[in-house]
Structures are given as C-alpha cells and as structure tokens.
Amino acid sequence: MARISALARLDPAALASAGTDPLVLREVPFLTRLLLRGDEALLALALETVGLGPAERVGAVARAGERRALRLGPDRLVLLDRPGEEVGLEARLAPLLAERGGGLVDLSEAMTTLALDGPEPAVRATLAEGCPLDLHARAFPAGRCAASLYGKVPVWLEAVEARAGRLRVELQVDRSLALHLAGHLALAGREFGFRLES
Questions:
Q1: N or C: which end of the chain has fewer CB within 10 A?
Q2: Would you put residue 149 in left (φ > 0), alpha (ψ -120 to 50) or beta?
Q3: pLDDT (tens digit, 9 = 90+) per residue, 78-107?
Q4: What number of helices (H) and strands (E) belong to the chain?
C-alpha cells in the first residue's frame, strides 16, 4: 500500500495569502525518527555508534550529512535520518540501549516534519505567535533545537539554516496534528504572505 504524507490531501490554495516574499511551508515526509532515552554517557555512546559527534547540552544538534540528533532533554534525544534508515539504525542501537538500561522508540510513522522557510524576521514572528519560547536569534540561532508547544500542539523545533537574512525552521509533529499545525502557521504568517509547496 502506498504511503500518504500527512498534508497530501490539503489544498495549497486553502492556506495561501499574498505577499512580496511569502513564507513557504513544505512537508518533509517519511523521515527516520528514533527517540532515544538514557543517561548522559549512554546517549554519547549511542551518537558515537551512529557516526555523530556529541550533543552534550539540551538544545544542541549533532549532524553528519543528512543524519542528525536533536538533544531535547537531559535524558533524551531524537535521531533523524533519510527515509528507510530506521531498521539499520535500530539494529545498531537497540542492543546497546537495552544492555545499559536505555530505551528506543521508532516514531518514523507516527510523526512528520514541516519546514518553514522565509525572511528571518517573518519566520521568527510567525513562530512566536504560537510558541512560548524565546525565539530571538540570540536565544535560538541556527543549529539549536527545543521541545515546546505551538498553538497547544507538542512540537520539536530546529533552527536548521540561517543565511542572507533568511531562516529555515523544521517542526517535528504528530501526523494527526500536522493539518492543524499547518493551518495555525498559515494564519500566523498571513501578514507576510504564505504558501504551501509540495
């Protein structure tokens, strides 16, 4: 059976608003997404096992190519990678985590990724409409992540890239809440212009 992304049936025109340099929302579906739990030493060993450097403090991101880890709490991180990598990664990590009292949950099918791109002030203002975090560039620069809420929806945010006045932030969200989140972002970003792209 064919996989269907969370926003596949959403009409882009339903969210669109005009603007000279609009915000762009894209879904990045089917990513590998593994949630790891354990103490500091175990998480560091898990990252080393999959070829990533340390993410020692909450909010840090470790990256190697398309693979990255978001340190979401003192005892948890989420490992993201290309679609289809979950089986191989789980085979490498599950025995290590089980042996040392850690845990691993495959959330690849349970969640999706929404990427918001655009002029940096517009992206930050749109996110600030629904998120209680301090999203100023000093507090949340590119290369940082956080677990929070957006319009009462639990999300994991990552400021992925900032260049030439532009910013891309990715939000990891439960698939069942992705439509609601997209609608909330579209409403919050309406003053800047907004479009959904596939």
A1: N
A2: beta
A3: 999 999 999 999 999 999 999 999 999 999
A4: 4, 11
Q: Comparing C-alpha atoms, which of 15, 34, 33 is closest to residue 25? A: 15
pLDDT of res. 2: 75
CA distance 156 to 126: 16
Report the distance separating Cα 36 and Cα 31, nearest Å. 16
Give the per-residue pLDDT at 21: 96
Tell me, what amino acid is at 96?
L
8-state DSSP, 11:
-
Q: Which residues contact 133 (CB under 8 A, 6 or more apart)?
A: 139, 140, 146, 148, 157
Please give the pLDDT value at position 198: 82
Determine the pLDDT at residue 3.
87
Task: Give pLDDT < 50 ranges for the chain.
Answer: none
What is the C-alpha to C-alpha distance for residues 174 and 111, in angstroms, rounded to an integer? 4
